[in-house]
Amino acid sequence: MRKNNPVSMMSVESANSLVSQGLKLLVAGEEGLLKQLNKGNWIGGTIPYFMSERGGVQTRGEIQVTVLPPEAKDLKILFYDEAAIHRIPEDYRSNGFSFVIIPAFSGVHHRFAKEGITWRGILDRPLVGWVSGIHLDDLGRVTPKVFNGQTGEVSDAAAVVMHLDLPREIYAKVNIINLFEQGHDDHISFPQTGFEVEDCLINDTTQNFADYLIDRKIDLKLPLVADYFGAKINVSVRSVDATKKVVHLYAPVFSHVEYRFAKPLRNYESQFRARLDEQKIDPLFKCNCILNYLYAELEGKKTAHMQGPITFGEIAYMLLNQTLVYLTLEKKERGVDREPTPKI
Q1: pLDDT digits (tens, 9 = 90+) for 7-35
Q2: Which of 72, 230, 248, 303 has CB atoms 3.0–4.6 Å from 238's, for a disulfide?
Q3: What's the CA gap between 131 and 318, in Å, rounded?
């Protein structure tokens, strides 16, 4: 139902002009730039990588702004720390949707990733968002941040959420595009849920996961893929410590879920464009993974309908990796109260 692209790169001055109009905004950019924004109806997260109207870019001098439509109303912005993050569903609107931004590497990031999908009510309304990050040159020196635009508060330890409602005739819908499919090689499962893995089961035989990756020369650009009732969910490898025999992941694996490494992609850019054109989507919000940006060499490349932040994790009810997440606003069919609960 949306006709105009609400996402664009701009200067702090241009963004402040939108803030002064009282518009509801989602903002992404470098920390120093976000701190220059005036108080208003916005939330933001740190990142210098974007898919923009100019193509893939990294910039420390511009921010990316998504303007939310006037149909989105009854705005409420809240922080949720690690102890309170499970309470997000308590603040869902009656016919609404919620945007969440979580700082990478924080306790709240890890708790949401490992437990979030099990929280009561989490699937009752659309929850979409991303994990804020930093320039890769700043790893280990700077922490990712999130911003509450109404108060000017900044946090590297809490999630920020914008809750919104919609008129009865409209509903929000969250979806994903994941180009990766499970390969036909070994099936892998893990005895414990977590971001760090030592032993695992390879075809039901216990083996150290780091040794397996090294011995088999696994291409670590390819994620592990699980099949959740038809939904393909990725987990990407962050690093392999051959000395300590530990594998660090960008999202947790879940115990007793079967994973397989993904099939290689032939041409990321053309496959993504084909999938987007096939679905004929017109998203209000979308984000994509930093690993897709790097591995597919998206800098300078244009892909239709992909404008949005490049993230350290994507959120569609749960934490995802190497996935495009998007949200659309749809008109309800007559007699339907709201969107069905997703089957994730």
Answers
A1: 899 999 999 999 999 999 999 999 999 99
A2: 248
A3: 11
